């Protein structure tokens, strides 16, 4: 987030950093759904117009507040990109990574984030922008069914799109819920162009189908 407050260590124990073998730099963020599954944006694993990155050259770093600290890494076993992902419009911009080892068992300070089974996007911790406003800003590139816009219409407190960082999270009674996954924006911190996020609520059925986990039974 641009112009937001710096997070205290341990504030986001579900957040992971995606790294690629040939550059060893942070390329995207992801969120732990359980000890072995990470959700991220599909464009993060799309290295060249539909050519998917191989799981043997990507890994995640977990439990780090400072990216310059000694890393704690977990390899990726499988990558699942939503079959309807469009690399031109960024519609259906969501992917799942199955990790080689259960992270929560390896590192006790990690906590998975909850899916918004009973939380609507309008409950998020940033203002969700009206669909009509987003359609005016982005035209037919914005899909009101699968995407949400969030940010401040006349402010620079928006998601910076140079890197896919900072999922849209809502805290309900202290429990974090993943509402959106950063997808795109006009430019980094451009006023009047709110950030566009994949609407996680829309994709819950697909997430449960791929992972084989019923996240919403007790949610």
TrEMBL record:
Looking up CDD domains in the UniProt record yields: Tryp_SPc
Q: Name one GO biological process term.
A: proteolysis
Record GO terms (molecular function) = serine-type endopeptidase activity
| Domain Peptidase S1 residues, every copy | 1-212
**What InterPro entries does the record tag this protein with?**
Peptidase_S1_PA, Peptidase_S1_PA_chymotrypsin, Peptidase_S1A, Trypsin_dom, TRYPSIN_HIS
- The name this protein carries in UniProt is Peptidase S1 domain-containing protein
Q: Which UniProt keywords apply?
A: Disulfide bond
Q: Which PANTHER family match?
A: CORIN, ISOFORM B (PTHR24253:SF176), TRANSMEMBRANE PROTEASE SERINE (PTHR24253)
């Amino acid at each position: 987030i641009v112009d937001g407050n710096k997070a205290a260590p341990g504030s986001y124990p579900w957040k992971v950093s995606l790294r690629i073998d040939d550059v060893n730099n942070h390329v995207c963020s992801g969120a732990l759904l359980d000890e072995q599954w990470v959700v991220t944006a599909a464009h993060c694993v799309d290295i060249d117009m539909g050519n998917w990155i191989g799981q043997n050259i990507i890994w995640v770093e977990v439990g780090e507040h400072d990216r310059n600290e000694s890393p704690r890494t977990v390899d990726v076993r499988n990558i699942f990109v939503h079959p309807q992902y469009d690399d031109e419009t960024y519609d259906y911009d969501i992917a799942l990574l199955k990790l080689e080892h259960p992270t929560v068992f390896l590192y006790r300070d990690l906590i998975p984030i909850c899916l918004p089974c009973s939380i609507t996007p309008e409950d998020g911790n940033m203002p969700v922008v009206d669909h009509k406003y987003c359609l005016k800003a982005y035209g037919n590139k914005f899909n009101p069914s699968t995407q949400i816009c969030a940010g401040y219409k006349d402010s620079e407190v928006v998601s910076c799109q140079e890197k896919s960082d900072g999922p849209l999270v809502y805290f309900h009674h202290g429990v974090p819920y993943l509402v959106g996954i950063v997808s795109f924006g006009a430019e980094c911190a451009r006023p009047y162009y709110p950030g566009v996020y994949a609407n996680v609520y829309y994709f819950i059925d697909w997430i449960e189908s791929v992972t084989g986990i019923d996240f919403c039974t007790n949610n």
